[in-house]
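Summary for the steering committee. The consortium agreed at its last meeting that each partner would contribute one worked example illustrating the joint modelling workflow. Our contribution is presented below. We chose a case with several input lines so that the handling of multiple components could be demonstrated. No manual editing was applied between input and output; the record is shown as generated.
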Amino acid sequence: MTAPDPALLSLNTATVRAQWTLAQIIDGCARHGIRRISPWRDQVAKDGLQATAAHLRATGLELSGYCRGGMFPAPDAAGRAAARDDNRRAVDEALTLGAPCLVLVVGGLPKDAAGTPVSKDLAGARAMVRDGIAELLDYARPAGMPLAIEPLHPMYAADRACVNTMAHANALCDELGDGLGIAVDVYHVWWDPDLAREIERAGRARAADGTSRLLAFHLCDWLVPTHDLLLDRGMMGDGVIDLPLIRSWMEAAGYRGAHEVEIFSANHWWKRDPDEVLATCKARHATAC
Amino acid sequence: MTAPDPALLSLNTATVRAQWTLAQIIDGCARHGIRRISPWRDQVAKDGLQATAAHLRATGLELSGYCRGGMFPAPDAAGRAAARDDNRRAVDEALTLGAPCLVLVVGGLPKDAAGTPVSKDLAGARAMVRDGIAELLDYARPAGMPLAIEPLHPMYAADRACVNTMAHANALCDELGDGLGIAVDVYHVWWDPDLAREIERAGRARAADGTSRLLAFHLCDWLVPTHDLLLDRGMMGDGVIDLPLIRSWMEAAGYRGAHEVEIFSANHWWKRDPDEVLATCKARHATAC
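What follows is the complete predicted structure of the assembly.
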């Protein structure tokens, strides 16, 4: 593999969220020559939607995605309606910011207000996800905002996302049609023996207008040992994922989009100088991906 | 679902390994009327193989499995030969103890002596697993010791087992033939959208002598939140797994074997009075499985 095009590097803003505000992240990326970012809704809300849009215009940064919609399952109709309304607002924000897609973390089992699962019906949760995406597509498709299902690692099936494989995401795309695609995050799917085949399947499936189903590509690494289920992701090259191999599958499937670095790391990268983190992302993108 | 037959309850000895020696566990099970156990090799080595076999005979306890063989991938031929020899000893021990199967935790990426992965070649590791099982079958099959592949949760793909789905285990069984089956542990497979189908597939596939591929069924629960990747499993009923549903799939597929409780729980069950743990296992087997 030749090194990836440095212009494809994008920073998911979670990577330095502990150290910097979104405005500082945007300025930091501009300073480091990272031309794409993928911000989170809570960060945008804090800095203000219009202020963030103006800041992006002023710096010329583009989005590689917007994090995130989803969380469809809920114990009752009121909860599902609240999720629907919130997801529509997420679509509106993604449009305002010029995002190429809204990433969906679809949700796990229905939870109460305290976040405790109130059901063990995983198939039922998956049906709520399908129905929720279908309803959101009716809003997002005419508005021109693609939705990107992010299959999450099976260890998040209960509490974050009950779509846990590329095969499941592809099946939902097959069923629900245009305007829906997939965000491929290596952390979540690297273990899957069907990964190459399912990336190829996603690349083959194109919308009527030729749009690819492969909407995003997220990078980090799987550390051995991993000390926390959520907040112990590794920098590219520090773990066991064969990143160049997975990138080669994405490229063979026609993907030409951003390489978005997304690292949740409470005890390491979130404690480092954020300028050092950004410099490391750039260096590792060149040498380890 | 009606409650399961209490006679099917088995204790995987890891469940109280922090509190009791194997001899104490055997006596404890006999005292609580738990008639089956599944011991670990290190515990057997500590108490002595022949002494353990005699103790089992004296108490009349039967095994539901023997933990464990596997760990096939290694960086070099010497490492793989060492794994082969060790696995043959595990087969011998399983025969001495009268185990119905030797459970295989197949291993992840090849590691150095310190346990650090030295390769990112997951497909290569999977090939080593296939070759290692094939070679071990040549030893175990004529000896009459079935091998049970235990697909492990994808979060263990790097360091413990690179067979992470029932589909992968079924494919290995299809390829390698008689004498090989599957240990279904709910903790590892509950999230899989193909679980019902793959259990049914395993039930349909029978050896020439009519033996089922479904060799073992392990119970515990998935806690939300889970605080540790390895040592934070829950007691049946304390988590989100629909245990009666999965048991119904096993039974529909013809499984009539033991229900083996296996709970690694450093901060909860390993700190409780082991008699209380055993009583809780019995109670939850009756009410939550």
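The CA atoms of residues 178 and 210 of chain A lie 10 Å apart. The longest helix of chain A spans residues 122-143.
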